[in-house]
Amino acid sequence: MNIKGWIAILIPFLVSFSIVILIQILLNINQRITREFRKMETAKIKIVNDEGQVLELEVKVADEPDERAAGFQNISRSIMEKTIILFVFPSEINGLFHMRNVEASLDIAFVKANGTIIEIMRMDPDPSRLYGPNESFKYAIEAPPGFFEEKKITSKRSRLIVESFSTNWFEGSWRLK
């Protein structure tokens, strides 16, 4: 085959390849994630809502200090709109959450060690505000705005079924029971 034959084959291939790469770049441009977010395991949890329905939810689990500190910071809005994070602390804490470096509003539910949801609030991307309940909690669940209302999950009436999942702190394995 002569050089013109190779060029005739190579040019359509390069154009097609360039178009594929460009499409991938455009699709991923709004898919910003961090190393900590990527490291979070995916698990399923169960919540009993106000109507007694057991809801099974897929969540990212932030159970390591770096994962809990990062949360949704520097994560693109398109990922935040379809992701829930379960923050797991080694024991009940009195703590506050902030929204620095977070692009969009979130709802957060604070949960006692026994699964009681003690407070749900809306957090807005204001770097100066802090959010937290007036009592200790072991878990926090961050979700897109309106999620808890839509699923009929409210404080004091709904409950995280902590028995529905187990964790081995040292092996980092999560599973639905």
Structure description:
It is a single chain. The chain folds into 2 domains: 1-30; 35-176, Jelly Rolls. It contains 5 helices and 11 strands; from the N terminus they run ααββααββββββαβββ. The chain is of the alpha+beta class and 177 residues long.
Instruction: Tell me the name of the CATH homologous superfamily of the largest domain.
Output: Protein of unknown function DUF192
Q: State the end-to-end distance.
A: 63 Å
Provide the CATH topology of the largest domain: Jelly Rolls
Rg, alpha carbons: 21 Å
* CATH architecture annotation of the largest domain: Sandwich
CATH class of the largest domain: Mainly Beta
Percent of residues in beta strands? 25-35%
Strand order within the widest beta sheet? 6-5-8-3-2-1-9
Helix and strand element order: HHEEHHEEEEEEHEEE
- Major β-sheet profile: 7 strands, mixed
Overall pLDDT level: 87
Low-confidence stretches: 168-177
Helical stretch tally: 5
In short:
By secondary structure, the protein is of the alpha+beta class. The protein has helices at 3-28, 35-39, 65-70, 77-80, 147-150, and strands at residues 41-48, 54-62, 85-93, 97-98, 106-111, 117-123, 130-131, 137-143, 159-160, 165-168, 173-176.
Question: What is the topology?
Answer:
Blueprint: H1 3-28, H2 35-39, E1 41-48, E2 54-62, H3 65-70, H4 77-80, E3 85-93, E4 97-98, E5 106-111, E6 117-123, E7 130-131, E8 137-143, H5 147-150, E9 159-160, E10 165-168, E11 173-176
Parallel strand pairs: 2-3
Antiparallel strand pairs: 1-2, 1-9, 3-8, 4-7, 5-6, 5-8, 10-11
